[in-house]
Design a protein that fits this description.
Layout: H1 4-7, H2 10-27, H3 41-52, H4 62-78, H5 84-100, H6 106-109, H7 124-127, E1 132-133, E2 147-148, H8 152-169, H9 180-194, E3 200-203, H10 210-221, E4 224-226, H11 236-253, E5 257-262, H12 269-281, H13 290-306, H14 315-329, E6 330-336, H15 341-349, H16 352-355, E7 358-361, H17 367-378, H18 386-414, H19 422-547, H20 550-557, H21 564-576, E8 582-585, E9 591-594, H22 595-603, H23 608-613, H24 622-632, H25 639-645, H26 647-742, H27 745-776, H28 782-798, H29 809-813, H30 816-824, H31 831-842, E10 847-850, H32 855-864, E11 870-872, H33 879-889, E12 893-895, H34 907-910, E13 914-917, E14 920-925, E15 928-931, E16 938-942, H35 951-954, E17 958-961, H36 966-981, H37 983-1016, H38 1025-1059, H39 1063-1078
Parallel strand pairs: 3-6, 3-7, 4-5, 5-6, 10-16, 10-17, 11-12, 12-16
Antiparallel strand pairs: 1-2, 8-9, 13-14, 14-15
């Protein structure tokens, strides 16, 4: 089904593969250093299967398939080759077989790989860029075609995108650089896991990137990664339980899984035997007991029946289906180190590691990889011009290559083995970035403090003369203002006296007016009380009138023979309104007055009711009122009786009664109203006179207020002038205090600020050399270290990276106060040991000290005593519990008497595999998850004179050679001799050393306090009295300490002169010790401590 030109290649591919297989088997024979150079027909099969990964729909002519065949040969046969000569031989074979069997030119079909444009593809670096794979497809995509990746830059961008996706989905992100070397190995792992049950053996030193490539490849293929977690007590049974869990999950749930296994996790060789079986058959014999087999068979029963793999449904058929699934779905990626004998031994004992795995040999990082990594990470360093940044990248690559050469010479001359790994290179870069940022911040801060302090001093000195002139100018102004205030006070006092007199007159008039007002109010209240009797009745009557309607009035008019109460009420209304009665004859014929006809006529008038409401009740004639009063007392004039007869008559009745009552009350109130009018008139006259007096008083008071305001203004000006004079005098006093206290520091601070400016410029060169020393040179002896550092410093100068004239780690990163404390704690007082102390303090990884004489051990114990250091050994049964406590409470811990390996259980601590949980930093140690305290420190020491730490250990720690030096031993022996011969001198010397360290620490603390006060003071320091007092007291204390230190140094010098006579003894003893120690180089029997 393949296109014709491609299909015709099938026999050629088989023939060419066979030729390569035969030639490789014959020429590349296994040796002790190349024990994995064994080839079998599985390798032949892998090439053919690899060619078949390219589907027929992806074919683009015969040339691509020939390139694919070349690619698969390189992956199966070429990736395991360990040296350049073998690789060049393999390339030559490919060129020959391509020409011989495929009848095409290798250079033509691979022309796009021609990097040097010489028309030939004949170097290994050129074929490195030949890529086939599924890495251009989206991660976890169901359709990921296996195709050629001709554009390396595009491939790099795709991988970087996959890496971003991985980091977003994991709690342990990887900060990787996608350079060509990384892409090569990633593509190889991705190719292996793509094939069903594909297994890989990744061979390289620790830190090469084996596990990182595997994890990213699995992410892209949507495979799960399973890895065992080593804890204290992890044994064969625990390993088998993990294997059960992995196989059950993969085979039972049909989940693609990669088992990632490293040789650092081998606590029992039985682990490797099980892995060997898994590679060979896809199962581990006798792993599952009978009852667990039944459970597994039930998990896969439905799938097995659906696929027709278990026609009878027996346990044997179902379990065979499960094993088949595991073989297809579980791939193993085994990471081994080629260093040491274990590698060769395991390959001999467990042949499936070679026979059933595609081998990928991780060579040392090439220079382009080192440059790519350094370029990426140093790109983030601020304040570096491109030229210096480029040279720093070159220096990092130079350090790495030089450290490898130095390690070879170290092994040849001293038989000591040290490994320079990619992790060391990454540590170099990260240490450089961290230390450069810290030192820049420290120097900038200190320089700023000196400059601010100098600025304050300069400002103070310049302001003294101006303040004196200000004080001279202010004194006359203050005298004049005092006089002006005195004169104004006299005027204000005179006006105050006049105002008081006017106030007295007004107060008397106000008393009279108040008395008149009280009298008028009393009369007014009596009138109101009397009226209060009549007014309710009057108001009620008016309301009653309001209720009368025309209909009710018409009813009255219609009465021909009205009832007596109606007739009586209307008669009273007529009397009040002065309506004349009619003269009529009564029954006896006598002429009498009859008000009814007149009443009928009256109520028929328009506005009758309105006239009643507006009736002039205040001017009723007394006779009229008397006549009405006689009527109101009659039985027929009572309101309830009248209301029963006529509603209209009742309203008129109420009105008449109200009029009579009002008149009766008004006669009483009238005299009182007259009295009230007279009282009010008198009150108004008094108030008019009083208001006149008040106006006069207001005028006088306003004048006085104006004078008082002017006086207050003058007093404020007087106070301001007084404050100015007082402040000026105080500032002059403070200025004199400040100048007296700190004036002598001006020259020193100026020089210090200048030196710090130079140090800031030189930081880049100094810190990069210091970072190289910390990352690579801790394990070397003094001669090797010193020679290498001098060479590196010289190289930095040649590359024009700014740095100090003479590099010194102590000057670059050392803190004098801290170093003195170390020496007091027992650190030998020589430059090599001090460098070791600085490396312990500044390194990012925990220190592992090669300490045959126990110096580091004693120093660490003494130094950690105040923090309650915990001391243990890996052989202690409870050391992990104690380690957990130290991490949680921030106590330091020392593991002593280490051998040549670490316990895998402490790997999370060594690698600082912390993670955030809320606001807390956590660490998973074995099964426990504990909080990580930033104060926690971890130290390791070994008494082995010449330990061989494999890269897997070296990449996790900072190796430090703490072997005693001649200078350090001589100094210690001199102390011992003096203690024996002159105990008084020894005691005094020890006291002076401690006292001197305390004095210098206090001096530094005091100066920092002075600088902090100066830099934190806002505005003019002379206005801050407390700051000036602190500065004065601090400087006084500093002078006292400096004086004491001067006396102590003089005394110490005298003691040192007395000690000099014992130096020859110490010198000869030190020589003897090193002569005896070197005897071990002749024969291991000659070993002395």
């Amino acid at each position: 089904n393949y296109p014709g030109d491609v299909g015709g290649l099938s026999k050629k591919i088989v023939q060419a593969t066979l030729e390569i297989y035969k030639n490789t088997s014959n020429e590349l024979r296994p040796t002790p250093m190349k024990v994995h150079y064994t080839f079998n027909l599985r390798d032949f099969s892998k090439v053919v299967c690899g060619v078949l990964l390219l589907k027929k729909t992806e074919c683009e002519g015969a040339d691509r398939h020939v390139r694919l065949w070349v690619h698969e040969i390189l992956r199966v046969f070429g990736d395991r080759l360990v040296d350049d000569s073998d690789r060049e031989w393999m390339l030559q074979q490919l060129r020959e077989q391509t020409k011989k069997i495929f009848q095409v030119s290798f250079d033509e079909i691979c022309s796009h790989l021609d990097m040097n444009k010489d028309g030939k593809v004949n170097t290994w670096d050129e074929v490195r860029t030949l890529f086939f794979g599924d890495m251009l497809s989206p991660a976890a995509s169901p359709n990921r075609p296996y195709t050629e990746c001709p554009d390396v830059l595009q491939l790099q961008k795709e991988i970087e995108a996959h890496l971003v996706g991985y980091n977003e989905m994991t709690s342990k992100p990887m900060d990787l650089v996608c350079f060509l070397y990384m892409l090569e190995h990633l593509a190889r792992v991705a190719r292996v896991i793509k094939s069903p049950g594909g297994n890989a053996l990744l061979v390289g030193v620790g830190g090469s990137g084996r596990q990182s490539c595997t994890r990213l490849a699995c992410f892209m293929a949507d495979f799960s990664v399973f890895q065992i977690e080593i804890a204290k007590g992890y044994d064969m049974s625990a390993f088998r339980e993990d294997m059960k869990a992995m196989l059950t999950k993969a085979g039972g749930n049909q989940e693609n899984t990669v088992f990632l296994f490293s040789d650092t996790q081998i606590k029992d060789e039985g682990f490797v035997e099980d892995v060997n079986n898994l590679l060979n058959t896809g199962e581990i014999p006798n792993l599952f007991p009978a009852e667990e087999k039944v459970a597994i068979c039930e998990m896969v029963r439905k799938a097995a029946v659906d696929e027709g793999k278990a026609p009878d449904g027996t346990l044997a058929q179902l379990f065979a289906f499960f094993i088949e699934r595991c073989r297809a779905l579980v791939g193993c990626v085994v990471c081994f180190s080629p260093i040491g004998d274990n590698w060769r031994t395991r390959l001999r004992q467990f042949p499936s590691l070679v026979n059933c795995c595609t081998i990928d040999w991780y060579t040392a990082w090439p220079s382009d990889a080192l440059m790519a990594v350094a370029t990426k990470f140093l790109q983030a360093v601020p304040d570096l011009d491109d030229y210096v940044r480029s040279n720093c990248v070159e220096m990092c690559q130079f350090f790495h290559s030089e450290a490898k050469k130095l390690a070879l010479r170290f092994q040849e001359e001293l038989k000591r083995i040290y490994y320079s790994t990619p992790t060391s290179f990454l540590e170099l870069i990260q240490t450089f970035k961290q230390l450069l940022a810290e030192k820049r911040a420290s120097i900038s801060s200190l320089k700023s403090k000196y400059e601010v302090g100098l600025d304050k001093l300069t400002t103070t000195e310049l302001s003294v003369e101006s303040m004196k002139q200000d004080l001279i100018a202010l004194q006359p102004q203050l005298v004049a203002k005092n006089k002006e205030v005195g004169e104004m006070m006299v005027v204000v006092n005179e006006e105050s006296a006049k105002t008081e007199k006017v106030k007295e007159v007004v107060a008397a008039d106000e008393a009279v007016a108040s008395e008149a007002a009280q009298s008028a109010n009393a009369i007014k209240e009596e009138c109101e009380e009397a009226l209060a009797e009549a007014m309710p009745a009057l108001n009620e009557s008016l309301k009653a009138l309001d209720t009368l309607s025309a209909k009710e009035i018409a009813e009255v008019k219609a009465m021909k023979n009205p009832a007596a109460p109606v007739r009586l009420v209307l008669s009273a209304v007529c009397v009040l309104r002065n309506v004349k009665p009619a003269r009529v004859k009564d029954e006896s014929g006598k002429m009498v007055d009859d008000y009814w006809p007149s009443a009928i006529k009256m109520i028929s008038e328009m506005g009758f009711l309105q006239s009643l409401q507006t009736f002039d009740k205040d001017n009723m004639p007394a006779a009229t009122v008397k006549k009405v009063a006689e009527m109101t007392v009659k039985e027929d004039f009572q309101p309830d009786r009248v209301e029963r007869v006529s509603r209209a008559a009742w309203g008129l009745c109420m009105w008449c009664r109200a009029m009579e009552t009002y008149d009766r009350v008004a006669k009483v109130v009238a005299p009182k109203k007259e009295s009230l009018a007279a009282a009010e008139a008198e009150y108004n006259a008094v108030m008019e006179k009083l208001n006149t007096k008040r106006a006069e008083l207001k005028t006088v008071v306003d004048q006085l207020d104006g004078l008082n305001a002017k006086l207050a203004s003058l007093r404020k000006e007087q106070d301001d002038l007084t404050c100015q004079v007082d402040l000026c005098q105080k500032k002059l006093e403070r200025a004199e205090t400040l100048i007296t206290s700190l004036g002598g520091e001006k020259t020193r601070w100026t020089q210090n600020a200048k030196d710090l400016s130079a140090d800031y410029i030189n930081l880049t060169g100094d810190v990069i050399v210091a970072s190289g020393l910390i990352a690579y040179l801790g394990a070397f002896t003094p001669d090797f270290r010193e020679g290498c550092v001098n060479s590196w410093a010289e190289s930095a100068k040649v590359r024009e990276i700014p740095g100090s004239e003479k590099f010194s780690l102590e000057r670059c990163l050392g803190e004098p106060v801290k170093i003195r404390a170390w020496i007091i704690a027992g650190l030998p007082n020589d430059s090599f040991s001090i460098e070791n102390g600085i490396i312990v303090d500044k390194a990012r990884r925990w220190p592992l000290c090669i300490d045959p004489q126990g110096q580091a051990n004693r120093w660490i114990k003494t130094m950690g005593k105040p923090q309650q250091i915990v001391i243990a050994k890996f052989s202690d049964s409870d050391y992990l519990k104690r380690l957990e406590g130290c991490i949680q409470f921030g106590n330091p811990m020392l593991i002593e008497n280490m051998l040549e390996d670490t316990d895998p259980a402490v790997e999370p601590v060594l690698l600082k595999q912390t993670f955030k949980k809320g606001n807390a930093t956590m660490l998973k140690l074995g099964e426990a998850t504990i909080e990580w305290q930033k104060d926690f420190k971890f130290y390791m020491t070994t008494k082995l004179r010449n330990p061989h730490y494999l890269p897997e250990v070296a990449v996790k720690v900072t190796l430090l050679n703490f072997m005693i030096t001649q200078v350090g031993l001589q100094d210690q022996l001199l102390n011992i001799v003096v203690e024996k011969e002159r105990p008084d001198l020894a005691e005094e010397k020890a006291r002076l050393v401690v006292e001197g360290a305390e004095n210098k620490e206090q001096l530094e603390v005091t100066e920092n306090k002075i600088l902090d006060v100066l830099s934190s003071s806002q505005g003019n320091i002379l206005e801050d009295e407390s700051a000036v007092q602190i500065l004065s007291a601090s400087k006084q204390l500093s002078n006292e300490i400096a004086e004491k230190q001067k006396i102590a140094e003089t005394t110490e010098k005298q003691i040192d002169e007395a000690r000099l006579q014992y130096v020859p003894v110490a010198f000869r003893t030190a020589i003897l010790f090193f002569c005896i120690a070197d005897l071990a180089n002749i024969d291991p029997m000659y070993q002395y401590s």
